[in-house]
Amino acid sequence: MIKLPDFIRTAPANCARPHIDPELWHSDDPNDRAHAMTICHGCPLFTACDTYATTNDLPGIWGGRTRAQRRGTRPTTDTPTQPRDEEWTDEDGVTRRPCGTPGAYYQHRRRAETCERCQTAYAARLEAERRAALAEEHAQGGTERGYYIHRRLGEPTCALCRAAMRRRTAARKTARAADKAAVLAAYQAPQDAPAVA
After folding, report:
1. What would the pLDDT profile of 182-193 be if each residue is shown by its tens digit?
2. Cα-flanking dihedrals φ and ψ of residue 40, to 5°?
3. Is there a smaller number of Cβ atoms within 10 Å at the N or the C end of the chain?
4. What is the mean pLDDT of residues 34-50?
């Protein structure tokens, strides 16, 4: 059980209400922490709580911020200047995802922010997905799709995928030639003479 300081227990703090679980502020669950931050916002002791926790370097959520945010290593601004390892709440009260996760990458993109850690993690995930897809194409003996995956990865194509691409290209040329011959034959076929009344 977390012991609340006297100034919180004797004042009308949001976290001291009877139906509120104080463990939320020290939970390992990101959803609990996000809920705690939401409860903190609008509390009359918001600033006092933050100051108390900053002065005493306390762990957990205090004044709507994590210990790392209070230490200044994770600023609470719209545009993060450093990667974050946990969910956090920006100045607009929006819960932001930990940097390096897909959710954080897309939040940064929607806000036109740059985060090198998220971009690196996204590129690594994308490459891993492409490599897994390429392995599936190679298991089929090489395919046209495998040829294009090699190209997207920026690497030379393998012999199996090149051969599959050549076969596919030849099949397309043959199909186009057959279509062209059919059209030409239909055009050159004698037309029935119109019936005279």
Report:
1. 888 888 876 655
2. -60, -40
3. C
4. 81
